[in-house]
Amino acid sequence: MLFRFLQGVSLLALLGCALLALQGTPLLGPEWSRARILYAAAGAVSALSLLAIGRIGLMVARLEAAQAALLARIEGRAGRE
Q1: Residue 50 contacts by C-beta under 8 Å, 6 or more apart in sequence?
Q2: Which residues of the chain carry a pLDDT beneath 70?
Q3: What are the extents of the domains in the chain?
Q4: For the whole prediction, is pTM greater than 0.70?
Q5: Do 7 and 56 form a contact (C-beta atoms < 8 A)?
Q6: Which of 2, 9, 39, 40 measures 20 to 30 Å from 26, CA to CA?
Q7: Alpha carbon distance 43, 76 (integer Å)
Q8: CB 27 within 8 A of CB 77
Q9: ∠8-13-16 over CA atoms, to 5°?
């Protein structure tokens, strides 16, 4: 649950960074702003790393569940023999 929350926060941060980057262009801002675009890119790197951490956490949780199921299966076979 915590990792899904982390992924959700990182997606919201990526959307915020995209908006900030667009505000550094003439599309949503008054003129080109390299500083705003670079600031948005730095934030996007942090948001992407949070997204990756959340994904790695979910993968570890799934591996632990699979390992527990496999161990229970092995112990079940050992009990029948």
Answers
A1: 6, 7, 9, 10, 13
A2: 81
A3: 2-80
A4: yes
A5: no
A6: 9
A7: 50
A8: no
A9: 130
